[in-house]
Amino acid sequence: MAMEEARKELCVDQKREEEKWVTHYSSKHQILLVGEGDFSFSLSLASSFGSASNICATSLDSEDDVINNYKNAKSNLENLKKLGASILHGIDATKMKNLDDFKKRKFDRIIFNFPHSGFHGNEGDYRVIQNHRTLARKFFSNASRHYKKIHIL
């Protein structure tokens, strides 16, 4: 009887660790999200996986600024923490390779949703477009040296 119980327990453990996929992202991947706004994308991934232990989500803004600027940010951050996410604020996606947090950890995927250099005039202005291009170029240069796949959405 004890052997049968042990087999059942093993099956339950295996199902808990079953890999889950959301498009290009697996619950087995170590995922870094940079430039988060209200952290809703990070929370969506974590909720789909049932855990955020494989997710490190970052924002350029401080935690206070994120909470003040985005209506749902506070609850999103709280839920991510409950699911086990690593959350970092004040992270510049163009300089992250120099940070100790990223020197020690390897990521299978880096996601930068809607990279934006900030609001500095009309979006169609040549200078603003160049700022966005520079941001993307610096991000790629920084991230590509240490990570397997980079996704900009």
Walk me through this protein's architecture.
The chain has 153 residues and is an alpha/beta fold. Helices cover 42% and strands 16% of the residues. The protein contains 6 helices and 7 strands, in the order H-E-E-E-H-E-H-H-E-H-E-H-E. The chain has helices at 2-16, 40-49, 63-69, 73-82, 100-103, 126-143; strands at residues 21-22, 25-26, 31-34, 55-59, 86-89, 109-112, 149-152. The strands form 2 sheets. A 5-stranded parallel β-sheet has the order 5-4-3-6-7, covered by helices on one side. The chain has a two-stranded antiparallel sheet with strand order 1-2. Strand 3, helix 2 (40-49) and strand 4 form a beta-alpha-beta unit. The longest helix is centred in the last third of the chain and has 18 residues, at 126-143. The protein is globular. Mean pLDDT is 82; it is low at 10-15.
Could you give the topology of this structure?
Elements: H1 2-16, E1 21-22, E2 25-26, E3 31-34, H2 40-49, E4 55-59, H3 63-69, H4 73-82, E5 86-89, H5 100-103, E6 109-112, H6 126-143, E7 149-152
Q: How many helices does DSSP assign? A: 6
* Alpha-carbon Rg, integer: 18 Å
Structural class: alpha/beta
Through-space gap between termini: 53 Å
Mean of the pLDDT scores? 82
Share of residues in strands = 15-25%
Instruction: Tell me roughly what share of residues is in helical segments.
Output: 40-55%
Can you tell me the overall shape? Answer: globular
Provide the spatial order of strands within the biggest beta sheet.
Answer: 5-4-3-6-7
Count of distinct strands? 7
Order of helices and strands: HEEEHEHHEHEHE
* Main sheet characteristics: 5 strands, parallel
